[in-house]
Amino acid sequence: MLSVRVTGTNKAAKGIFKSLENLVERVSKDAFAKSKSITPVRSGRAKKAWKTERRNKFNVEVVNRVPYASRLNKGYSSQAPRGITRPASKAVAKKYR
Known about the structure:
This protein is α+β, with helices and mostly antiparallel strands. The protein has helices spanning 9-38, 45-48, 69-73, 85-95, and strands at residues 50-56, 59-64.
C-alpha cells in the first residue's frame, strides 16, 4: 500500500485566492478607467457617473447609472460611435492576454 501525505495546501490556496483578488482589482480598475476615458462628453455628467461596485471578493461591477448611459453605449454619440463597454472590454482583455 502506498500512502502520500500532502501538507501546506491551505497556505497555497490562500496565496491563489489572494492573487485572484488582486487580479480582479486590477482588471476592474482598468475597465473603470477605460470606460471613463471612452465616454463622450457634452456636460460631463456621464463621464463623472462611472462607479465600481464590489459584490464580493471576486465580483466587481463597473456601472454608470445616468438615464442615457445605455444610449451612449449603443453608439448614439458621434464621439463614441462604437459605444463604451465593448471597446473598453476589448482593450482590457487585450491587456491581460
